[in-house]
Amino acid sequence: MAAQKEEYGAKDLAVLEGLDAVRKRPGMYIGTTDSQGLMHCLWEIIDNAVDEALAGFCTRIVVTLHADGSITVADNGRGIPVDKEPKTGLSGVEVVLTKLHAGAKFGNSSYNAVGGLHGVGSSVVNALSSRLDVEVDRNGKTYRMEFRQGHPGVYTDADPAHPSPDSPFKKTRKRSPTELREVGTVEANVTGTRIRYWADPEIFNSTAKFSYDQLIDRVRQTSFLVPGLSITVVDENVPETGDESIDDLRETDEMMLPDREQSTEAAVAEQSEADQPADEASSEDGIPAAATVAERAGHARVEEFCHTGGVVDYVDFLSKGEPVCGIWHISGEGTYEEETQVVGPGGDLHAQMVERTCGVDIALRWTNNYDTTIRSFVNVVETPGGGMHVDGFLNAVTRQVRKTVEANARRLKVNLKDSGTKIERDDVTTGLVAVVTVRIAEPQFQGQTKDVLGTAQVKPIVTRLTDKQFGEMITGSKRGYKEPSSRVLEKIVGEMHARIQARKTKEVTRRKNALESASMPSKLSDCQPGNDDIAELFIVEGDSALGTAKAARNSGFQALLPIRGKILNVQKASVSQMLANKECGAIIQVVGAGSGATFDISQARYNKVIMMTDADVDGAHIRILLLTLFYRYMRPLIEAGHVYAAVPPLHRIALTGKRKGEYIYTYSDDELASRVAQLRRDRIGFDEDIQRYKGLGEMDADQLADTTMDPRTRMLRRIRMEDAAQAADIFDLLMGGEVPPRKKFIVDNADDFDRSNIDA
């Protein structure tokens, strides 16, 4: 039977008006509706305030995290216009917060280099909020307007001091007068904007969580990129800590002053004495000072950021490990022509060629670290995906390094006749810390989330400036750069040799199957071939434990590699030292996927790599050294969840009486005491002579299998890296070459140390 023909007409077409399209398809505007999208909304509001700073009209921003989950962003900029917009007849506030692609950033009169330029930031946040309140100080008055899911109206709060999106709301009818109303007065010279919003749970999924650490990172980087701008973060979710913190907070008011000359950044409890009374700072522009906000809220977590050194200070902050050279600075500007749509006198768009100015500000330094850290920005908006400005910078740096290495081949011991000894970009960027910023009008981003800069004309300008200025530095022709440039070149050439050696090692270690590798270490007890999807490699501490482990393992899928004591601390060692180390080389060879930049996880010979060491302090130290090796040179294994720590027991309790022959294993002294107390309460007999294992070698094969190796009964701890940047900081602190920070960390945290969390 033929299907009935469906009618399709104009009545089937849906027209989404206003901000309804944003609520229907939020992913088009903020990327996702999880934590990333939640944070993106905050960036949009903060970026609008920062744009005022870039235009020279804002010196202070305060971000407040309220206990009810809402967020307030306040600035002392010019304030959103409150007069009528001629075309719509609405107030400027309502236009900015309810109309997509509306704002001053489409013209050239109010803003030049800005971050938010698509005209959808504030309106999208409004659409995706269950409630949004805005207050504007202008013309000696304070104006207020409220919205529910993007629609203007008026809330009736039972307690105005504690507004809520659940309060009664009267929606403004279409074609009715705007609900922007005067609610107070301010000094004639006071201007600014305050926006408080509550993210809508109907839009964001249940896993969406706000990240305080991401906020602090973003605020800190903005303070570097806009020298002199003071940004305060107040978190009302932190418990009170007493009056002392309030006294300390008062000392930070000097941070709020726009004429501060020195760079500062710290939690407010660590600031120096103020140069001006708090009352003056708090009344300067209508934004409460940090101390005032904290005292009113009764909370202590207030952090403030203000720097004057720009990208040079930022590179210094990002640098980890021992510097190879000082911080090199590249700056300048260039012009280019671009065809753009310009709003004419009648409000119509027409194409016009305009001349743009591109300002370039770059700072870079090499350290002895393995990692590459390149942060790129366009008008203070971070571009994690890079783009034309980063491409231009890296192309020029790589080209200049290659030319200089070729010119100094004999001194650097580079064989130019060998086609394989060529400097690659990875060699240049290893250990490189750089901040690349450009400021241009109306940049072209790839998507609203602004991850990649697409303005092609920027690339040749950055390339030309880098070629000239970096070329003078790396060749040593610029005064004061001869010695540091030599160190940089030696490091880069060393990375090239290490890469070539690593590639050779990788080629040697790859095998067609588990039994064909004649080059495997003789001490490896490999598993049978054909079980690659479940194969496990146990890295065993000591030869004594190896004998027991051989009898306890399932040779079908479990391989054993013994190591002798504590391996090389690769956090302090160079790549060549690591490769020359017998134990480290054996581990990399057995895993079979290479190391460093050439690591290929698809070539790994085992599905799980399990560190099996004694349950004591020495065993924990060995695990840390092993984990440092995996983190620095085989990181994808950790990121993919293939690295584990075995959890051998510390004690064995032998039961007696009717349960003779049964054993209970415990993994800490606290657990032992708890189990013994439980057995006594339950009147279960046990041998008072409780066995305490000093090492894996003290177990017999059955015990080791049951407790540590048999997948059916063992317990493993998976090594995870939820935050790679934080993990890098911890590894550098605990395993790096700088002793004072490590000593301070140990002293500060000694009282909170818990041995049971040593692998947590």
From TrEMBL:
Keywords: ATP-binding, DNA-binding, Isomerase, Magnesium, Metal-binding, Nucleotide-binding, Topoisomerase. Residues 535-649 form the Toprim domain. Its cofactor is Mg(2+). Belongs to the type II topoisomerase GyrB family. This is DNA topoisomerase (ATP-hydrolyzing). InterPro entries: DNA_gyrase_B_C (IPR002288), HATPase_C_sf (IPR036890), HATPase_dom (IPR003594), Ribosomal_Su5_D2-typ_SF (IPR020568), Ribsml_uS5_D2-typ_fold_subgr (IPR014721), Topo_IIA (IPR001241), Topo_IIA-like_dom_sf (IPR013760), Topo_IIA_B (IPR000565). Residues 272-283 have a biased composition (Acidic residues). Its EC number is 5.6.2.2. Gene3D superfamilies: 3.30.230.10, 3.40.50.670, Histidine kinase-like ATPase, C-terminal domain (3.30.565.10). Residues 151-180, 260-286 are annotated as: Disordered. NCBIfam families: PRK05644.1. One of its GO terms (biological process) is DNA topological change. PANTHER family: DNA GYRASE SUBUNIT B, MITOCHONDRIAL, DNA GYRASE/TOPOISOMERASE SUBUNIT B. The keyword Magnesium applies. Pfam families: DNA_gyraseB, DNA_gyraseB_C, HATPase_c, Toprim. It catalyses: ATP-dependent breakage, passage and rejoining of double-stranded DNA. One of its GO terms (molecular function) is DNA binding. It comes from the Bacteria.
